[in-house]
Design brief:
Length: 112
């Protein structure tokens, strides 16, 4: 998924470079990185939610209830992995692509 997102940001940066405006490239790159940072923060907020108490099935003498924690299920590790490892690496790669595209725009404008 991170490779697809980085490829999409790269394609948007290439399209923005066709306008021959470094501002368009910078805005497109910042939008791509910003959207990813928003997703990381959203996952962290959702996974740090308060646990939900589930009472026991029968009313009396059936034992204790259970606590359900957010992102603690079978796929919880995927949410933590994407928000703490894959997301920051993808944001770093997208920012490198943006800086590279800006330098190429600058070089192209100096040659012309």
């Amino acid at each position: 998924m991170a490779v697809i997102y980085t490829l999409c940001v790269y394609c948007v940066l290439r399209l923005a470079a066709l306008s021959r405006s470094s501002v368009a490239v910078a805005v497109a790159g910042m939008f791509g990185v910003g959207l990813l940072i928003y997703a990381i923060i959203d996952i962290e907020i959702a996974c740090s939610a308060d646990p939900i108490y589930t009472p026991p099935a029968c009313a009396e003498g059936c034992g204790e209830g259970s606590m359900r924690f957010a992102c603690d299920g079978p796929m919880g590790w995927l949410a933590y992995l994407s928000s703490r490892v894959v997301g920051p690496v993808t944001a770093f790669l997208c920012s490198i692509l943006t800086v590279r595209a800006l330098f190429l725009m600058r070089r192209r404008n100096q040659e012309a």
